[in-house]
Structure formats: structure tokens, C-alpha cells
Design brief:
Blueprint (H helix, E strand, L loop, with lengths): L2 H21 L4 H10 L6 H17 L7 H9 L3 H5 L33 H4 L8 E5 L6 H7 L4 E2 L6 E4 L9 H4 L3 E3 L2 H10 L6 E4 L6 H10 L4 E6 L2 H4 L2 H7 L5 E5 L5 H5 L6 E7 L20 H21 E11 L8 H10 L3 E3 L8 E3 L2 E4 L1 H4 L4 E8 L1
Parallel strand pairs: 5-6, 5-8, 6-7, 8-9
Antiparallel strand pairs: 1-3, 1-4, 2-3, 9-13, 10-13, 11-12, 12-13
Length: 389
């Protein structure tokens, strides 16, 4: 493909991504994969070049662009070679006019910029590393590192390895043998903060597809009771085959009905040694992995998320046994989802006390700790560990 053809393809993809972000559709990676599946004529070099153009345009625009052409014109105004591709020949974009709308450069949406520490802004647009967690029940980090020559130990967790971005992990023998899981080091730290041990009763209240559940299962050595619950049937259904691959068949799955969680969890009241609440959130801490997610968040959505988080904390509090722990985490750098949320919970809840000794990395923020890309090299997370009297 000529440069103009690549530019036109990028505009078409950006149009789809912008609409999906506005309407809650598929993620950019999914849309890009679908696009190329129906365009077999595009070679591997063309696909890489188009994908690069798309993500350069996404990372450049903090606010949602009006359309794909505006997004790419914004990039072209800073790239003369790209601007030359707008030549109007067949299958290429029309020439750029002086008065055309283009996106302004920005890291974050303007309404949100002041809510996130400025020192974190640039790091949110960097490419994220690829971290894996070694399944300690089956092997150790040194053995896996010997099988993956490009892997290096992560700095903060004992079973973490870091690989070059884009590594085909799922084609490796350690993956096929159930020795490793793809998991950011920050997520691994959250699982470690739970301090799950063999024989405990542990609930992962918002388990999703079970990434942290599997880490908890590893820490429990397959002994005890581990319950994974979620309101999303499709995501929760992905856990059993993942658990089978790593020999964690003792995990129980429970599908929750929003607003009627007690109907499914009532038997666990004051029974759990640990309840992990990895709550639905803005995802601001993971935007370097999904930069178009910045276009999905709105003030109304943030308000609904904080309301959901508050409700989940109240549900979890009833399930923690005396002396047990409630671990709260959000992959967010916004204070009202993290430190502010826990401060409000502590103000209305009797008998819970924040623990300071969560893990070594991160910075203390109110009743918990904040992990961030700029400071710790992990995805952004707020984590609090609360002990019940």
C-alpha cells in the first residue's frame, strides 16, 4: 500500500474507534483485528504501519476527536510526510485545507486533567511493559526465566518476569504448560496484599475473568475455600478453563445479580478471612495499555462508578469475619475512587482499621497506597488493606 492508502485506512479505523468509545463498543485492538480480517490484501508491513498511525493519533488526542480525519489531520500538522499522503488520489484522503478541524494535542480530557497528578500525565501515554506471573505451585521464577531468554525479573514481586512488548507469550511452552499467567506487576502486588494462605476462606468479589483469583489460588496452594464472584456472566465464564490450565480446580464461581448480591453471598456473612474488592473503576491507571479509554470516561460515568464502589465496600464489609481483612483496589489515579472512597467507608463503618504495611513500593495516600506508572513502573492502582476488629 502507498502512504496515502495507509492514511485512509487509519482514518477509517479511527472513525470506528471514536464511535465505539462514545457508544460503549469494542476496544481499539478488537476493531483493528476485525478490520484487517476482512482486508487480506494488507501485508504485515502495511498492518504495522496503519496500526502505528492509529495509536499515534489516539495517544495525541486527550479529548475525543470529532472524527477520524480530524484525528489524523492533527497528527499530520506535526508530520510533513504524513501530510503529503493527503493527496486526493484514488483510495487516499483528500488534501488538507487550512480551515479544517483537527484535534488539539493533549494527554488527558480537559475536564479530568486537574484530578490526576501532573507528574503522571506523560507516563500514561508510554507503552506498557508485558509482565507475567510464575505459578509457584508448579515451578519457580528462575526455571521459567531459563525458558524465556528475553525475560527479566520484575522489581517488586517474587514471582514476576518482564518481557519485551509484543512478546507472543501464549505461544511459549511455559504458557502451554500452565506455568505462567499474563499479569501486570501492580495486579500481582494487589494479590500479595490479600495475604491469602492455605486453609483460608477467601472471596474475590469482583473477579471478572479471574486474573487475581488465580494469583490467590497460587498463594493458597490449592487448599482452603476460594470463591470468585461477578455480575458479568461472560467474563466469569472465562475463569474455569483458565483455572483448569493451572490446576486450580478448587475455585468456586458465583454469578451475582446486581442489587441482590446477598441472595448469592448470604452464607458467607462474617465467614471470610479475606475479601478482595477489585472494584469497577475509571481504568485511568491502565490508559497506557488502552489509550482510547480516555475517550470513554465522562463525569456522569465517573459518578456512577464511585456509587458502585461504595456499594461494593458495604457488601464486602458484611462478609469479613472478625479479625479478617478487606482489601480494596481500583486501577485508577483519581482520588475519589481511591483514598476518598476508603475515607468515606471508614467514616460510616465501625470496626475497620487501615493497615499501613501493605507492600513496599508505592506512595502512601490517605488510608492506602498508590502505585503508578511514573513512580513504580506498574499500572496505576490505589490499594487499601482494612482489618476488622
Amino acid at each position: 500500500m502507498r502512504p496515502g492508502g495507509r492514511a485512509q485506512a487509519a482514518i477509517e479505523l479511527l472513525d470506528e474507534i471514536i464511535v465505539a468509545a462514545r457508544d460503549g463498543g469494542a476496544a481499539a485492538d478488537t476493531l483493528i483485528a476485525r478490520y484487517f480480517k476482512t482486508r487480506r490484501y494488507a501485508g504485515s508491513k502495511d498492518r504495522r504501519a496503519i496500526r502505528d498511525l492509529v495509536y499515534r493519533a489516539i495517544r495525541r488526542a486527550g479529548d475525543p476527536p470529532a472524527h477520524g480525519r480530524a484525528a489524523l489531520i492533527g497528527l499530520a500538522r506535526e508530520d510533513s510526510e504524513l501530510a503529503a499522503a493527503f493527496d486526493g488520489s484514488p483510495h487516499t484522503p483528500a488534501p488538507i485545507t487550512d480551515d479544517e478541524v483537527s484535534t488539539r494535542p493533549g494527554v488527558l480530557p480537559r475536564w479530568l486533567a486537574k484530578r490526576i497528578d501532573r507528574s503522571e500525565h506523560a507516563a500514561l501515554l508510554e507503552r506498557a511493559p508485558l509482565d507475567i506471573r510464575v505459578n509457584s505451585r508448579k515451578t519457580d521464577r528462575d526455571a521459567v526465566a531459563a525458558m524465556l531468554p528475553d525475560a527479566v525479573p520484575t522489581p517488586h514481586v517474587p514471582n514476576g518476569l518482564r518481557l519485551p512488548e509484543g512478546s507472543a507469550v501464549e505461544a511459549t511452552q511455559p504458557w502451554l504448560d500452565g506455568l505462567i499467567e499474563i499479569q501486570d506487576e501492580g495486579s500481582q502486588l494487589i494479590a500479595l496484599a490479600a495475604r491469602a494462605r492455605p486453609g483460608m476462606t477467601v472471596l474475590d468479589l469482583c473477579a471478572g475473568a479471574g486474573g487475581k483469583t488465580l494469583a490467590l489460588a497460587d498463594a493458597m496452594g490449592g487448599e482452603g475455600r476460594l470463591i470468585a464472584s461477578d455480575t458479568n456472566r461472560a467474563r466469569l465464564s472465562r475463569l474455569p478453563p483458565r483455572a483448569q490450565r493451572v490446576d486450580a480446580g478448587f475455585i468456586e464461581s458465583r454469578l451475582l445479580d446486581p442489587g441482590r448480591e446477598a441472595n448469592v453471598l448470604g452464607d458467607l456473612e462474617e465467614q471470610c478471612d479475606v475479601v478482595l474488592v477489585d472494584a469497577p473503576c475509571s481504568g485511568t491507571g491502565t490508559w497506557r495499555r488502552n489509550p482510547e479509554a480516555r475517550w470513554r470516561l465522562t463525569p456522569d460515568r465517573l459518578a456512577k462508578l464511585t456509587e458502585t464502589q461504595s456499594g461494593l465496600l458495604d457488601i464486602a464489609a458484611q462478609l469479613v469475619k472478625p479479625g479478617g481483612a478487606l482489601v480494596y483496589a481500583v486501577c485508577s489515579l483519581i482520588e475519589e475512587e481511591g483514598a476518598g472512597q476508603i475515607a468515606a467507608f471508614l467514616a460510616r463503618s465501625i470496626g475497620f482499621t487501615p493497615e499501613r504495611d501493605i507492600f513496599t513500593p508505592g506512595r502512601y495516600l490517605g488510608p492506602g497506597k498508590l502505585l503508578s506508572p511514573a513512580h513504580d513502573g506498574t499500572d496505576g492502582f490505589f490499594v487499601a488493606r482494612l482489618r476488622r476488629a
